[in-house]
Design goal:
The structure is a single chain. With about 120 residues, the chain is of the alpha+beta class. The protein has helices at about 10-20, 60-65, 95-110, 115-120, and strands spanning about 25-30, 35-40, 40-50, 50-55, 70-75, 80-85.
Length: about 120
């Protein structure tokens, strides 16, 4: 029996989606993770393929998401409000994409005015 994962949970799907976000960039670092950045700041990453999507969330989303099966505080990043969403979570691909958009927005909003202006982000 083959298992079908949400496309966003695979390297190809994750990287393709990230590149649709304004001024987002991708690098491969650490253990060859796909790391999404805006203005040089990390807002999400894919740990393995398929695997966990780690991303920055709001304080409220952190509290709610970490109550779900298959979602945990992201190792090393939890103190900064990050969660790790596994393929075993009840979230579907569209929901994970919505959280990725929000992670991009949160981190972009914390960039300096100068960096936001350089990137053309209002």
């Amino acid at each position: 029996m083959s298992v079908t994962y949400p496309k966003i949970m695979t390297r190809i799907g994750f990287e393709a989606f990230i590149l649709t976000l304004p001024k987002a960039t991708l690098v491969r670092q650490w253990r060859d993770d796909s790391v999404a950045k805006i203005g040089g700041k990390v807002f999400a990453l894919l740990d393995r393929d398929p695997g966990e999507v780690w991303l920055k969330v709001s304080d409220m989303a952190y509290e709610l998401l970490t109550e779900l099966e298959g979602v945990r505080p992201a190792p090393y990043f939890a103190r900064a409000g990050w969660v790790a969403i596994s393929v075993a979570s009840p979230l579907d691909g569209d929901e994970v994409e919505a959280y990725l958009r929000e992670a991009h927005r949160i981190v972009a909003g914390k960039l300096t005015r100068k960096v936001r202006a350089e990137l053309g982000l209002g």
